[in-house]
Give the backbone structure.
Amino acid sequence: MNLPDFNIYKQDFLQQGITYPLKPVPTQQAGLLVKLPPPPAEKTGWPWTEQVSPDVYSKGINWPKLTIVTPSYNQGIYIEETLRAVLLQNYPNLEYIIIDGGSTDETKAILEKYSGYISYWQSEKDRGQSHAINLGFSLASGEYYAWINSDDFYMPGVFHEVISKFLSSKTAFIYGYAYDLRDGKNTLIRIPPSTDYFIKIPSLMQPSCFWRASIHQPIWEEMHCAMDYELWLRLLKGNSRLRIRKPLSVARAHADAKTYDPKMQARWQADHERMWADDAHGSVPEWKRITFLNKLRLKLYKFLHII
């Protein structure tokens, strides 16, 4: 496994004149809703015309810095919702980094429109999603991390709830449920995490995961689809975790999403064969065995109404 050196990525940024640490997102006593660019006329509700009240963040608490990274490429029809769902949490110590791979749609115009409320963004060619995520985290200076893709978005109040849990516990990793938003149907489907780590398959809902910066590791950039799955295998080993039994995010299902695109099946398979052939995780037969056991366990959990 060949993992990149964050220091090299960071040095490249510094040589471009980027100041480290990045400036946090500016805050407003009344929240950012009235300061952000107005939403399209037809958009209402969260996160268009609603925000998390800044009053939920109790005074006298030194809220730790939270870094959110968004990798992006040609998701201009979705990214504004992603942006607003991050910013309108009104978290008082937020670092927000967006690494766009040189989109050719409306993405860059949207990023320019919101640039005053983003700690750092760039729109230039990169080596894909895994590389973009690593570039973003190489600039991170928060105590807690998460990434959210540019076609997903957070539920309201999530940052307050998650960071409050971190502050009241010694856990290193927090994860929760997610909704599955399917285009054309306008319905939200609850998706629970598919493991409690009684066995080794960590099929977690990636946008509903948060962790301490102290346990972070680089993404394996050879992973095209299963980069989160592979990261959890390394990140969670030996670290405490806590589950929040509610949806923390909305994962959008659409034809171009890697999870739902039939053309991506071969890439998914190649990722799993590569990660289990590597000494870090074992062999492909081991992966097949624990996948089979995980399916049996999920059927049992569903029968017993545990999930």
User: Anything to note?
Assistant: Residues 179 and 190 are 5 Å apart (CA to CA).
